[in-house]
Design brief:
Number of strands: 30
Strand order of the largest sheet: 3-2-1-30
Structural class: mainly beta
Distance between the termini: 9 Å
Shape: globular
Number of helices: 1
Largest sheet: 4 strands, antiparallel
Length: 323
């Protein structure tokens, strides 16, 4: 019998898990420091009991849906892991993005890590150290990957992640929070969220056009950006009045980012909507979460929403798996 497991990664409270749709939660941090910061969670694309967690103490792996975690010892132990990504067609290859901004690759499911050839800026006034906030594959080219760096723009790899280079000009800000790629007529439309706008590129990241979405959204600060797994033209965007902010909103586009409609979340979120997550096996189920601990669920692809009863202190990652 299968069941849906939800995982929440918090700042200062480790990982929490729910197996009843988000009503009851339990700590799922055995093997890691129970009060660690968990800024990234990712589910193995073929084995739903296997997850990776990016923390302030390195990367952890579980093979039993969070009952026990094991630290994958290596160079990430002394860095803060902000982003994790598993190569879909080669799931033993895992990428990690860190603070200070570095990118690492493992080709043996995290047993060994090697820093790839990428040279993003390391320091920045205001946040002290830059960080890699997002990593994703290109749906049109298996050898191409993309990365967003806060605060150093958009980066891409054409050699399977062995090296990355910075691309593009015209971004409203180099403060990249989220990336998404929408295939359209054999080409890619790339979207990037920043601290002050949503940006779109239609020439493989060479040039970007700010969308001035603050005029429609009310707030220009944008965070997470996620396509629906089975319909990449359906996009969800997290928005609010700042980091962490005091109010938030979620938005959905049905046409690859050309137009947006506000999500009918119950009430006003208590802070910026940080990001979204899906169950790959149940893509109509989507979860939204705010920085300051609220979680929302839609069972119909984003038309109707309910707020889960449990609130956490600070959420920075979430994952869903059918186990």
């Amino acid at each position: 019998m299968t069941q849906t497991a939800l995982f929440v990664g918090t700042v200062g409270e480790g990982v929490w898990r729910s197996t009843d749709g988000g009503t009851e939660w339990e700590r799922s941090s055995k093997g890691m420091f129970v009060e660690c910061d968990v800024r990234a969670l990712v589910v193995h694309p073929r084995h739903p009991n296997v997850l990776y967690a990016g923390t302030n103490e390195g990367v952890y792996r579980t093979e039993n849906a969070g009952d026990q975690w094991t630290r994958l010892e290596g160079p990430l132990d002394t860095l803060i892991t902000w982003a994790l990504f598993i190569l879909p067609h080669q799931p033993d290859t895992v990428f990690a993005g860190t603070r200070p901004a570095k990118i690492f690759r493992s080709t043996d499911a995290g047993q060994r890590w090697q820093q790839v050839d990428a040279q993003p800026a390391q320091e920045c006034p205001g946040i002290r150290f830059n960080r890699v906030t997002t990593l994703l594959a290109d749906p049109l080219d298996r050898n191409r990957l993309w990365a967003g760096v806060e605060i150093d723009g958009v980066w891409t790899s054409a050699d399977g992640g062995a090296s990355f280079r910075r691309v593009g000009h015209g971004l409203s800000s180099a403060d990249i929070h989220g990336l998404a790629i929408v295939p359209r007529d054999g080409r890619r439309v790339i979207l990037a969220t920043t601290n002050n706008d949503l940006n779109i590129s239609r020439d493989d990241g060479a040039t970007w056009q700010p969308q001035e979405i603050g005029k429609q959204f009310g707030h220009a600060y944008c965070r997470g950006l996620k396509p629906r797994p089975d319909r990449p033209e359906v996009l969800f965007l997290g928005n609010g009045d700042g980091p962490p902010g005091s109010v938030g909103a979620g938005w959905r586009s049905l046409d690859g980012g050309e137009t947006w409609k506000r999500l009918a979340l119950p009430g006003t979120p208590n802070s910026t909507i940080w990001d979204f997550t899906f169950c790959a096996a149940e893509p109509e189920h989507v979860y939204a979460y705010s920085v300051s601990g609220e979680v929302y669920h839609s069972a119909d692809g984003g038309d109707r929403w309910r707020k889960l009863p449990r609130e956490f202190g600070e959420i920075r990652s979430m994952a869903c798996s059918v186990i």
